[in-house]
Amino acid sequence: MKLLRYGPKGKEKPGLLDAAGRIRDLSAHVADIGGEALSPASLQRLAALDPGSLPLVPGIPQKDVRLGPCVGGTRKFVCIGLNYADHAAETGAAIPKEPVVFNKWITAMCGPDDDVEIPRGSVKTDWEVELGVVIGTGGKYIDEADALDHVAGYCVVNDVSEREYQTERGGTWDKGKGCDTFGPTGPWLVTKDEAGDIGNLKMWLEVDGHRYQNGSTATMIFGVAHIVSYLSQFMSLEPGDVISTGTPPGVGLGQKPPVYLKGGEVMRLGIEGLGVQTQRVVRT
């Protein structure tokens, strides 16, 4: 299934994408795409529904109908840094011995096509296409062998980053990663049975039509199962939590000379089988 949330900001309704690419309303079956609605039992019930029996939402998704973040009620937005060998090489960083963990604040999360706002004073706002993992079953101290059983599905995340705030202003990476709108998420949550081989998905990002990132999840250093297990050693994972798992090379920081967003650009990005995002970059 491809599950989604549609409608105005803060008033999104649950839905799914049918085989014809149209939105079917799920409001009669779940309150939101999040929390307990992501449990294996709930996903099984939703999968058993006939999409043709669900109310059709007029309009074309991402054109006539706004999509919100594909998961609601998220309490943690956890990210993994330097998790692609070729991206670590372009930044000059050593291959991490353990996953590099940082956070985005929940206010960073936005719809897949919402405007991305450059913070006041920013001079180094950058882009990062990433595979997002959505937790369906919570847990703590999860064995790696069981980790994928805790995953509801996958999505596209743009880990927008302000590099000066991240690395030149002292403290941790978090303040360069969690600015408002720095986490477009979606367009849909693709359940595990439909996501394909998550260890070998093509991923790309363009700015104003120029392709900067053109990579694959195959170059991830730490795979999804390892990341889920690892994070659960330090925190309880909960249904609806989102984990963004790192980016391939081609970020603005890695260009020679570096290229950063200044406002007015359009970012377009996607992951094979998981959908496409488009964001306009605006100055606040």
Query: What would you call the shape?
Result: globular
Summing up helix and strand content along with how strands pair, one would put the structural category as mainly beta
Continuous helix count: 5
Number of separate strands: 18
Mean pLDDT: 96
What's the helix and strand layout?
Elements: E1 2-6, E2 13-17, E3 23-25, H1 40-47, E4 77-81, H2 85-91, E5 100-104, E6 109-110, E7 116-118, E8 125-126, E9 129-135, E10 151-158, E11 161-162, H3 163-167, H4 174-177, E12 183-184, E13 189-191, E14 202-207, E15 210-216, H5 224-231, E16 242-244, E17 266-271, E18 275-283
Parallel strand pairs: 4-16, 6-12, 7-18
Antiparallel strand pairs: 1-2, 1-13, 2-3, 4-5, 8-11, 9-10, 9-16, 10-13, 14-15, 14-17, 17-18
Could you write a compact summary of the structure shown?
This protein has five helices and 18 strands.
Structure write-up:
This protein has 284 residues and is mainly β. Helix content is 11%, strand content 29%. It has 5 helices and 18 strands. The strands form 4 sheets. A 9-stranded mixed β-sheet has the order 3-2-1-13-10-9-16-4-5. Strands 7-18-17-14-15 form a 5-stranded mixed β-sheet, with no helix packed on it. The longest helix is centred in the N-terminal third of the chain and has 8 residues, at 40-47. The chain is globular. The termini are far apart. The relative contact order is 0.21. The model has no long low-confidence stretch (mean pLDDT 96).
